[in-house]
Amino acid sequence: MINFQNIEKSFGEQLVLKSINLEIKKGELMVLLGASGSGKTTMLRMINGLENPDFGSIQIANKRLENRPLLELRKEIGYVIQKVGLFPHYSVYDNVATILRLKNEKEQVVKEKVEKWLDKIGLRVSVYGRKFPAELSGGEAQRIGLARALVAKPKIILLDEPFSALDPISRLKIRNEFREIQKEEKLTAVMVTHDVLEAVSMADRICLLAHGEIQQVGTPQEIIYKPKNQSVKEFVKGDQFQAALASVSLREIIPFLKADALENQDLDSSVLDYLQEADSTYHAIVLNAFYKWKEELL
Ligand SMILES: Nc1ncnc2c1ncn2[C@@H]1O[C@H](COP(=O)(O)OP(=O)(O)OP(=O)(O)O)[C@@H](O)[C@H]1O
What we know:
The protein is of the alpha/beta class.
């Protein structure tokens, strides 16, 4: 779906991306993971033409990017960034509606879609529709940014640290919600983060970058259990590594947690219920992971 071929990029004297070759498949969630300054955002911005490579080419659905009008391209691509960039003088409703109105959708259709997507990201239109961005918390604003991108029905969604303003519980919730929406809509998603935990708990595959070079591309399990080189090993060691391990194990159980368990913080009984029912051979590891994760979360 998205293909980086021999990409190279410099800013002045600084070589920021070197020999980047990466294929992102249709419908997958690819996480670009790496330390600050490793080139993640630059790669992401190349997908919607906000940066151009010096060498190499990017193809989307087998079409080279440089041959496509930018406006047409961006209609297919949703872009969600850390600083949400909502229009400050528009209400939440109007912020989400903007793109539909630009497409000349009828107001009745606009209303249905805005309500649907606000509802999907957990904010009711009756409560939030009339608020202005300055009246929202950071996390709410990030959710609205997500709804605004999703309402346009993009084929591809690019996310740059999209959940960073959220507290741990809301973060976990919205990660899961977004993941469900992404699968349901068969969206091809590329997400930038430097948070190992976020990467392993959400990604189909992770592309690990260091100093502008791809170190490894693989599933979270491959990255964690089969690091290809020293650089990958270093990235996933220590506390972050432990948390990531916990999260990988938890991917097994989170879908089985009772829906309200997170809200009620009645996690222990919910997890134990699951473990009893599931007859998992990894009880000890999952349970250990769970307690570590809970310590961190609560
Ligand atoms: N427009 C620009 N002009 C000059 N240098 C830039 C520009 N954009 C990025 N850079 C440099 O390129 C390097 C990679 O930046 P990039 O934003 O891609 O990194 P990143 O991995 O996303 O980092 P972070 O996690 O801190 O956001 C950095 O050293 C940055 O200073």
